[in-house]
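Handout, section 3.2

Students often ask what a structure token actually looks like in practice. Rather than define it abstractly, here is a full record for Transcription and mRNA export factor ENY2. The first block is the sequence as you would receive it.
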Amino acid sequence: MSKESRMRATINQKLTEMGERERLKELLRAKLTECGWKDQMKAHCKEVIKEKGFEHVTVEDLVVEITPKGRALVPDSVKKELLHRIRAFLAQHAT
């Protein structure tokens, strides 16, 4: 396991233990809904299903198909806010 992987795991553990991970997930959900991301993704899913045919699309296929677009559509302002909150949390809880 690389140093980066260990650090990532430690940060994740600290975020989870202190309940911050859940708060960040709630914030992310709210921000994505607020900016219309959720509606865009729903429309993209419908598009993919219509294109491939309902009987020929599995959930896994859909996830593979929409994930890149989903990540690309997250506004930079949302990414920056989450990163800022994670950094602030880590600075406050540094050991």
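Discussion prompt for tutorial groups: The mean pLDDT is 93. How would you have guessed this from the sequence alone?
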